[in-house]
Amino acid sequence: xxxxxxxLAIERIENIKGENTVSEKYRxxxxxxxxxxLLVDKLKEKIxxxxxYKFSIEELECWNTHLYDDVLGEHYKTSYANPAFATEKFGxxxxxxxxxxxxxxxxxxxxxFEKKTEYLDILFELFIEVYNQFEEENEPxxxxxxxxxxxxxxxxxxxxxxxxxxxxxxxxxxxxxxxxMNSDFxxxxxxxYYGEYVSENEKRTAxxxxxxxxxxxxxMADVYTEGYRIGFVNTGKNLSKKETVNIRYTLxxxxxxxxxxxxxxxxxxxxxxxxxxxxxxxxxxxLKIGYYGGIANKQxxxxxxxxxxxILDRQFMERKLEVMRTTYEQYKDLARRxxxxxxxxxxxxxxxxxxxxxxxxxxxxxxxxxxLEYDSKSSQIVNSYIPGDxxxxxxxAYPVPxxxxxxxxxxxxxxxxxxxxxxxxxxxxxxxxxALDQGTSVHILGNNGNHTDLRVQLYKLKDPKKxxxxxxxxxxxxxxxxxxxxxxxxxxxxxxxHVSQVYLNELLYKDLEVTFSxxxxxxxxxxxxxxxxxxxxxxxxxxxxxxPTLPLGEFAIGTNTIAYVAAKKYxxxxxxxxxxxxxxxxxxxVGDTCYSWAEDIKVYNSxxxxxxxxxxxxxxxxxxxxxxAYFHCHTDITIPYEELKSxxxxxxxxxxxxxxxxxxxxxxxxxxxxxxxxxxxx
Length: 682
Hints:
Blueprint: H1 2-16, H2 24-48, H3 57-68, H4 83-90, H5 92-106, H6 108-113, H7 117-136, H8 142-155, H9 157-169, H10 175-182, H11 200-211, H12 214-234, E1 244-248, H13 254-266, E2 270-272, H14 298-303, H15 314-330, H16 332-336, E3 338-347, H17 365-385, E4 394-399, H18 407-418, H19 422-436, E5 439-446, E6 453-457, E7 467-468, E8 471-473, E9 483-486, E10 489-504, E11 507-517, E12 520-525, H20 532-542, E13 552-558, H21 561-569, H22 578-581, E14 586-591, E15 610-611, E16 634-638, E17 644-651, E18 656-661, E19 664-665, H23 675-680
Parallel strand pairs: 1-2, 1-3, 3-4, 7-15
Antiparallel strand pairs: 5-6, 5-17, 6-10, 8-9, 9-13, 10-11, 11-12, 13-14, 14-16, 17-18, 18-19
Helix pairs in contact: 1-2, 1-7, 2-7, 4-5, 5-8, 7-8, 9-15, 12-13, 15-17
């Protein structure tokens, strides 16, 4: 039945190319989309008959470019995917709506590779339905067309969203896993079999990994999977009860991921590997959650991050939540046996500063409230079926070739950083924790143009012999080593956090300044845009995630001076991922604590002391109202060592213990951390 409907849809779309039944104003738009749909249909045929897999690398590159050409480089300026261009052609209402439709239909590319004919048919029928409306009237009522799109999203929630949930927990949905386990990695044509955009980064990464000895690849995989296993051990969670692990990675790293899959199988875990969302029903803003290839155009992704504003209302929210509950209930046994994500991230791309376009769709105040409510309720649903106190995660990151001419050398350096001796750091970090445990607060002061002046209040220990405030973090869930971190006491945490430049969630912030009052964000600004309102909106959208305020969920001191020196040596500090950057100085996370959804699980350092600072006055509200306790975000902001005047522990008796002075560790027992810094200055 699906195939028949699909064929009828294609037949109708073929006719569109030669018709003049819509007004001239919209004719090119519909013909462009028709051409794209027919291109994907042609691709689908070649995939299904096997012809696609016989193409040369040059032919595959040509196909890949053709599929993504309209959003690449200068072409995006005159693409209907660009809301600025679309609104110029059609006005603000129809420009936004038709740009959204164009973008939603672009999601059919991976569906063709996954042979999801039903998905293709749904989207092609949506296109035809909208086209028919423009045939019937010279310019149909805007609301009539918007409702068509609204009901597409609502009606097919139980297809796209339900399948998305199943992909996360069911190892039998194995499109990517099959490619990883069965491909010949010496033949990089396999990269083009995913249906993702393939840039030089993905190709050169795969080729570089092919050049590395097996022992190095094994080491990379072992660090990744062992970190995951240790995460369960350190938190006292039973990994033997679990059967699946979600693997997230970027294309090019398959040689490592294949060994990682085998490592996980030895732990009793099968992989679930799902693609980053491409539909308004499955993606979260511009963020890539799942596996993905190159990002053809980051501005394009940013322009469409709030497309749900065209359809989001309370009814739609309840529809999505209903589908979530029904699907998780249907697959509750699979969900209960899911262990959580293992993420292999990349960094090194040219830094991206988005343009905030007035033509792009944005959520109104009511929709922001609904979105926050959805985030809260959906997280509660997930947690009821995949309990936070039973799951864990791990994250590791490696550079891509775009990082610069010294890519191979940098890559080797990052391997060393990701495999540093945890025991050395554990001992030094314990010395820092012993000092911190004596304090009532920590005072952080900036230097060299940094005007940070922040006092962080610390948890009061009841039994210092058995309890500790800070976790001694080496290399388990967050690779590499090392840091010590805590959940600050919000009351009494006051002051200004400033950093001259920082990347948060792949977005640049210049002269970022955040003011805290009793541990809550009270004010914020940056210097990205000419107008202050734009700067505040930027922070509100991408750090606060539209919450009016957020608590300081974490205070940490990073100890990885080796990573810091490497960043300076290769001039890549601006390209380091937060995963490594947070280990290169003190950092402060706004949002949930590091223990969210698992605060009641007792956690211990290797010396046997229980880490008791797991809650704050916001997260503790989970006992009465879980929706008031969590914000479903956690964004780390790091101050580099060279911008630090001091980090000082303040004790109840007036004593002060300096940990860092003028960017150097001065606490006795931490001198080894300065060795890389000394060597870098020679």
